Amino acid sequence: MPLFHHKKRLSNDTIENGVKLVTAVEPKNIVSEQFRTIRTNIDFSSVDRQLKTILFTSSDVSEGKSTVSSNVAVTWAQQGKKVLFIDADLRRPTLHTTFGLPNTQGLSTILVNNEDYHSVISSNVIDNLSIITSGPIPPNPAELLNSNRMKNFLQSVEAEYDLVILDVPPLLSVTDTQIISANVDGVVLVVRQGVAQRAAVKRAKELLTMVKANLLGYVLNDVVSKNGYGYGYGYGYGYEK
């Protein structure tokens, strides 16, 4: 099966205007292999329970959570899983830019208008990967994400897809992520070397523990490679200690 549908292809110009989707544009690149390793390690962390909903977040802004979640979502789709990728950052959404999609409808319109989510799904970018953008930024993101409509929506898509991935705001910025973390199967914390503060990461973990979220591990990104792998950074996956 080809990586891209013929209806819409991701051009290099489109990708460069947003987050670089190295896993889609250069699947044989060493960085793409690192994202596949992250995917595999997350899969291994679910030996005792099936992970259907996974949330990617960070302690603060500019740590690369959207870059990581986008690329890992692509690797799961490339593996043949039916994946739904949701932009649940209703304050600073990015996925519509990353994938070159309109954002007039999305998660916010689903929740506000009780709209059928099938009508806003984009599934013509990468095989096996469906995307729901954030939609217009609402005045009450936390209330929407904590609503019964959000819980019912997650239950519905969980039944339809092999894996549902959510990109959400940083934990220390707003309450949105702490709220939704309690309603997913697993949380991955993205930590950017040289940006994340130890105290901030520790506090982020405490917030997840307070709501009994299942912290699967962390992704350390922006690690400078001694070998100079073209992108100048690397990714590693591990467990918080």
Examine the coordinates and then state which fold CATH places here, giving the name of the CATH topology: Rossmann fold
- What is the tally of beta strands? 8
Distance between the termini: 41 Å
Shape: globular
Pathway: Capsule biogenesis; capsule polysaccharide biosynthesis
EC number: 2.7.10.2
Protein name: Tyrosine-protein kinase CpsD
GO molecular function: ATP binding; identical protein binding; non-membrane spanning protein tyrosine kinase activity
What would you say this structure looks like, in words?
With 241 residues, the chain is of the alpha/beta class. It has one domain: P-loop containing nucleotide triphosphate hydrolases (Rossmann fold). The chain contains ten helices and eight strands. The protein has helices at 12-17, 22-25, 30-44, 65-78, 95-98, 107-113, 141-145, 148-160, 176-181, 198-210; strands at 53-58, 83-87, 122-126, 129-132, 163-167, 186-192, 215-221, 235-238. An eight-stranded mixed sheet has the order 3-4-2-5-1-6-7-8, sandwiched between helices. Helix 3 (30-44) packs across helix 4. The longest helix has 15 residues, at 30-44. It is globular and about 40 Å long. It starts with 11 loop residues before the first helix and ends with a strand. 42% of the residues are buried. The model is unreliable at 1-19 and 226-236 (pLDDT under 50).
List the keywords.
AAA_dom, 18% strand, 8-stranded mixed β-sheet, globular, 8 strands, nucleotide-binding, transferase, 241 residues, Rossmann fold
